[in-house]
Every structure is written in structure tokens, then in C-alpha cells.
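Hey, weird one. I pasted the ATPase component of various ABC transporters with duplicated ATPase domain sequence into the form twice and got a warning about non-standard characters only the second time. First submission, copied straight from the form history:
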Amino acid sequence: MHIGLDFEIAAGQTTVITGPNGAGKSTLALTLGGLLPAPSGRLEAGPDFAPSPARRNPIRWRSKELLTRIGSVFQDPEHQFLTATVRDELALGLKAIKRPAAEIKARTDELLERLRLTHLATVNPYTLSGGEKRRLSVATMLATAPKVIILDEPTFGQDRRTWEELTRLLAEIADGGTAVVAATHDLDFADLLADARIVLPDWETTGETTP
């Protein structure tokens, strides 16, 4: 990167990444989530959080190791749907980490109720409304109880009711000790939830290159 970014993601804290279009918000979110390598610099998880002392950069973690540590929610929920029903979508990560069948059912039932998706349990995720898709995408990440949740434009395209539900849910998640990171253009969302902010510059005016 051509800008110095020095920050920490802490348990129970909501960190909001803001900046204009093209500033690199999504790139930074994907990098923090272990889905893209950092173009430069160093990204390290704490020694108690990483799978091993020799692998502290999330890009080096296996998918099963990410599932219980970092959950990423994409801007377009459909990009993370893989199964034919809402219930199966919630169970997918739990099956990947080989949780018992009884635990999987209990956890999926809990999330269906918490996210108001119980009546949609057998529905194909791709047929849901925009708000329902967003709630499901967040629920799938919560299923494996990661310690960090990273969201890219979580409120994009949401109506006011879904916006309020989502902000309440993320506040509850952070209050429970999970670190929440959100890349967003939504300054109302940022003002409401941010404990810390990372503000990326307008690269056109700085003359630098987007990270």
C-alpha cells in the first residue's frame, strides 16, 4: 500500500472502514478476512488467535481454521450462497468443522429464529428478498461463532427496517465480545456503531495508487 495503515482489531470493538469509491475499502476488508494477500506491509493475528505461531497471517490459514476465527460477509450476499435451502446454508460451516448433528440442528434453529428466517428454512436462498438475503448472509457467518466478523457494505440496498435490525444485531454481536469490522459508505451506520475508524483517502486527489 502507498499509505501507512497502523491499527489493531480488538475483541468487542466495532471498527468501521470508510472512504470514497475506489479507495480500497473492499480490498482491505478481504485482506483482513484472509481472502486476499496484503500487497505490502504486515498483517498478523495475535499469538493466541492464530492457528500456530508460524502462521499468524490469515491468508495462510486453511478454510476450516478461518471458519472459527474470521467470518466474512460480502457486499452481494448471493456470492456466498452454496446450498439449496436456507437451513442447509446455515448448517454448511458447522458440517465443515464436523460438529455433531444435534448441535448443528440446535444452532441452525437458534439462528433461524434470531434472524427471523424460521418460516423460510426450506426456501432456496436465491429466491429471498434483499433484506432476507442479507440476514441469511450474516447468520451463516455467525453459525461457527468466529471471533471476528468482517462485512463489506452491510447496509447497502437495505430498507429502513432491515437497516435498524442489522445495526442492532451487530451491536449485540460486538457487546458479546466479537470484533466487528465493516467497510461502508454509510456514515449514519458508522456514526452509530464505530468504536474506531479507518478512513481511506481519495487517491485521485493524493496522487497515490489505490492499495
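That's the output from the first submission. The warning seems to come from a hidden character in my clipboard, not from the data itself. Residues 24 and 90 are 30 Å apart (CA to CA).
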